[in-house]
Amino acid sequence: MIATQLPALQIIIPLFAAPIIVLVRRSELAWIIAVVANLMCVLVAWKLLGLVNEQGIIRYSLGGWAAPTGIEYYVDSVNAPLLLLVAAISAIVLLYAYHSVKKSVDSNKHYLFYAAWMLCLSGLLGMLITGDAFNVFVFLEISSLSTYMLIAFGSDRRALTASFRYLVLGSIGASFILIGIGFLYAATGSLNMLDLAQRIPDASSERAILVAFSFISIGLMIKSAIFPLHAWLANAYHHAPITVTAFLAGTATKVSLYVFLRFLFSVFGTQYNFEYLLFNVILLPAAVLGFLIMSVVAVFQTDLRRMLAYSSVAQIGYIVAGISLATQAGLTAGYVHIINHAMIKTALFMSVGCIIYRLGHAHRPSLDNLIQTMPLTCAAFIISGLSLIGVPLTVGFVSKFTLIGAAMEKGWWMMAALVLVSSVLAIIYIGRVADVMLFRKQRLPNPIPQGRNEAPLSMLVPMYGLIFMSLYLGVYGSKTLAVASEAATQLLGGFR
Questions:
Q1: Boundaries of every domain in the chain
Q2: Residues ≥6 apart with Cβ < 8 Å to 463
């Protein structure tokens, strides 16, 4: 009986945990409830992935109302792995958050912080699992509103400015999406995504479909922080509490990219996007300029959070480059990098969080010889940095090797070469940090205290757990590639 309700439980568990946390109000108990609810979400996502692998696509009618009249949850080989990824990353960062949040957020606001976290998780999982276009917008708003709140918890007053800026740009993006969905409904009379895919080719108004496509694409590009619509991301990542940054970097943009993929390939279809509209003429330049320009900008950043924020925009460029190929190999490369970059960037921000916990800042020029004081944290940053660069035996190498192969398969040699150029830039900005941490002698008026001064084990253990998982998937890259290949096949084949 419970197995048949798993899609609904995926959303209900964190959604119900939020008000319970507000009623409890106690800091430690709020954290425990959030962790337990999140671990239950991981278990549900794991079960759903197993059922999809065994039985195929799962279609769940909410309240017993059959689609397209009712709301449908739809789980297949595209979103099932991402449900597990988002739930797992959230759980890992929540375990890590206990001491970090105590130091960075006022104690009387902890229960609100964890309640907002649960709401954000519920919204993100809802965006992944729903098969209803309007529900995508509803869950997007749930996750966005709670994200604005999480960012505003930052100790710096600039966190409020960053949150407000994200609110403005996020609201614009959400409005574009809602308008696009409205045009789709006007043209087809349906909101069910599977039903939309069947009705769009026969829609009476081709202009309405084009307008819907344009509005939805622009809105999702804003929410995904695709260059040049990424203006909200750097300040949001920089000024939010570092646990929030780690959580958002591994989940929020990845979920928006999934929705982008769903609409592009499953709803509107490959032929409409890339043969009729030639959408890759827009996507490919945006992707290439994104991973080149943002990598250059990252080189000149002195704060590690800001450097990694611009790096995230560059890495999103790789994903979009794979999407723009519109081939099996290209989609496989883009999808696998959604998974791999989520792990890499979350681990990097967690290591930066350990530095901030002990030093109170993440200013690169002030991290002279940090290896002597925080060797485990420095090792975590460098290992994750090597994965970001794409060194062999890391998940980053799996992604970039697959993307370069996909570009060469299509004859886009210049794109493959530019991916390598961007990787060289990553070597520069990660290498500069490693050089300061490992080799530069103390030269500050108030040097970092000598002796071991690592972050608490409750922060180190989850961080290294994620790093070991990424190393394992780097060595055995065929595991994630098989998942990505199956997802690419499903996307190119449309809804079934």
A1: 284-295+323-496
A2: 96, 347, 350, 351, 354, 380
